[in-house]
Specification:
The termini are far apart. Helix 11 runs antiparallel to helix 13 (268-281). It contains 13 helices and 6 strands. It is of the alpha/beta class.
């Protein structure tokens, strides 16, 4: 397999799992190279995601490292396949971080998230998304705004399309009261939240101001569940782009944080009543 110039987050994750399998087993890179019939440098490239690995070689490595979790190995084999998702149409014309998000969402089996400043991208109307994109610094050119909006729309198919997956969103009252784009846009956004929250696979939970302090305040977190828990990923947003976390301790921390937030927030029907009252106030 030829080397990659810019491996995707999913490809880098596969590489990190290969390294973890090898090091946990106490296998040297030299031994792994001999086992797989490649030179030492290719092992390093495989483990950084710069070079791919075939399904057969992955299974050979897993077997010789005594990996007995069949579901985990099958999930890794799936990750060896070349990325052919719809997001590839945007490669080279939008930042790779955005495509990494789309690819991870497209391969997730369940998504959980918490937002305190704005409605989650998965639940934004086009009008609110446009208002947020236009507030970027430095200003985005109009053609890129249009591309980002198209990408956002396609990403939302993960929870609204024919093969929609479960999605749980904890949204703080502050995010619901923000008027990106003005009053009319804000009202339409809240009405859309009410509509989409009626879907069987979507759960919207409101965290009111009155509930006081809470973990992760001010932070936007998305927890993407993989085919097996070991392959879960946390995405944390920042002004310079997304950060992806997958160390065992990090995953445990954010699972616990989201558990607490979901328990602290209003239940689904009370959340809808809360949103209806906000609509009435606008």
């Amino acid at each position: 397999m030829p080397p990659r110039t810019t491996p995707t987050e999913r490809q880098k994750r596969l590489g990190s799992e290969l390294r973890r399998i090898r090091t946990v087993a106490g296998m040297s890179a030299e031994f792994a190279a001999g086992l797989l019939g490649v030179d030492r440098g290719k092992i390093s490239n495989m483990e950084s995601g710069v070079r791919g690995i075939s399904a057969d070689r992955l299974c050979t490595l897993a077997c010789n490292c005594d990996v007995t979790d069949e579901a985990y190995v099958e999930a890794l084999v799936e990750m060896t396949q070349a990325s052919t998702g719809w997001w590839e149409r945007y490669r080279g014309i939008l930042p790779q971080g955005l495509l990494d998000i789309a690819e991870l969402e497209g391969n997730a089996v369940r998504i959980r998230g918490a937002n305190t400043v704005h409605v989650p991208g998965m639940l934004q109307t086009s009008e609110q998304a446009l208002a947020i994109f236009h507030a970027a610094v430095p200003a985005l050119p109009e053609h890129e705004v249009a591309l980002r909006l198209a990408l956002r729309s396609e990403r939302q198919q993960v929870i609204t399309g024919d093969t929609a997956i479960p999605y749980v969103a904890v949204i703080h009252e502050a995010a619901l009261r923000m008027q990106f784009g003005g009053t009319d846009v804000a009202r339409a956004q809240l009405e859309y939240l009410l509509e989409v929250s009626e879907r069987d696979n979507v759960t919207v939970l409101v965290l009111p101001f009155s509930h006081g302090s809470f973990p992760g305040s001010g932070q936007t977190v998305v927890y993407l569940e993989g085919r097996v828990p070991t392959l879960d990923t946390v995405q944390v947003d920042s002004s310079h782009g997304p950060t992806f976390l997958h160390a065992e301790g990090q995953l445990a921390k954010y699972r616990a944080q989201l558990d607490l937030l979901e328990n602290l927030a209003l239940p689904p029907e009370q959340s809808r009543d809360f949103i209806r009252e906000l609509v009435r106030q606008l």
